[in-house]
UniProtKB/TrEMBL annotation:
<feature type="transmembrane region" description="Helical">
    <location>
        <begin position="169"/>
        <end position="188"/>
    </location>
</feature>
<feature type="transmembrane region" description="Helical">
    <location>
        <begin position="84"/>
        <end position="105"/>
    </location>
</feature>
<dbReference type="GO" id="GO:0045881">
    <property type="term" value="P:positive regulation of sporulation resulting in formation of a cellular spore"/>
</dbReference>
<dbReference type="Pfam" id="PF14089">
    <property type="entry name" value="KbaA"/>
</dbReference>
<feature type="transmembrane region" description="Helical">
    <location>
        <begin position="48"/>
        <end position="72"/>
    </location>
</feature>
<keyword id="KW-1133">Transmembrane helix</keyword>
<keyword id="KW-0812">Transmembrane</keyword>
<feature type="transmembrane region" description="Helical">
    <location>
        <begin position="111"/>
        <end position="131"/>
    </location>
</feature>
<feature type="transmembrane region" description="Helical">
    <location>
        <begin position="143"/>
        <end position="163"/>
    </location>
</feature>
<dbReference type="InterPro" id="IPR024164">
    <property type="entry name" value="KinB-signalling_activ"/>
</dbReference>
<protein>
    <submittedName>
        <fullName>KinB signaling pathway activation protein</fullName>
    </submittedName>
</protein>
<feature type="transmembrane region" description="Helical">
    <location>
        <begin position="7"/>
        <end position="28"/>
    </location>
</feature>
<keyword id="KW-0472">Membrane</keyword>
Length: 195
């Protein structure tokens, strides 16, 4: 891939992360914005816009590091596991989804398992959809690696958000992570294909 395309991928993903977090903040942190609208405090509003955009840039960088780490690990694992790498990835996908449900549910003192189950199911369905698009645009062999990336790597990247006391930051973090991971996964083959 040409260095021009690497720079393009970096900055476009960075902007996507910043913009998506800013938009998500309007829904997740409505109360914080509302406090500064009556009376209107433009300085605080500007500060919030800059803060959430900057936070989105950080989430985008986490996504980009995860993606390039995955590309490296994938090549290494192909050499180690050879034809069994797809099977290993399927096992890791199942474990990652189990981890999103069971271990998070155990960490909560009282509550129901339903929200954790719904989050894992939603992530899996969305990831299946994205992996299907990737496989359709490239070849069928990319389906499992794409599904692995979208489920496992996104879950790993999301860990800091899941560990916060306030669930708002978990929601603020997952939106840019999913969008940036999807974007990187679906744009890379377009940037690397020979004209």
């Amino acid at each position: 891939m040409k260095s021009r395309n690497v720079v393009r991928l970096f900055f476009s993903t960075l902007l996507l992360g910043g913009f998506s977090t800013l938009i998500a903040s309007f829904f997740v942190k409505t109360g914080v914005y509302a406090e500064n609208l009556n009376p209107f405090n433009w300085f605080e509003i500007l500060g919030l816009l800059i803060f959430f955009t900057g936070l989105g840039f950080v989430f985008s960088l986490i996504s980009q590091m995860g993606y390039f780490a995955y590309l490296t690990v994938n090549q290494f694992a192909l050499g180690v596991f050879r034809k069994y790498w797809s099977t290993v990835q399927v096992v890791l996908i199942a474990f990652s989804l189990f981890d999103l449900v069971y271990f998070r549910y155990r960490s909560v003192e009282d509550g129901t398992i339903t929200p954790f189950l719904l989050i894992a199911i939603a992530l899996f369905i969305y990831s299946w959809f994205v992996a299907g698009i990737k496989a359709k645009e490239t070849n069928k062999k990319t389906f499992i690696p794409a599904l692995f990336f979208m489920v496992v790597v996104t879950s790993i990247e999301w860990v800091p958000g899941l560990r916060t006391e306030n669930g708002d930051y978990a929601w603020l973090m997952i939106v840019p992570l999913i969008l940036c991971n999807t974007y990187q996964l679906l744009i890379l083959h377009r940037l690397t294909e020979k004209k």
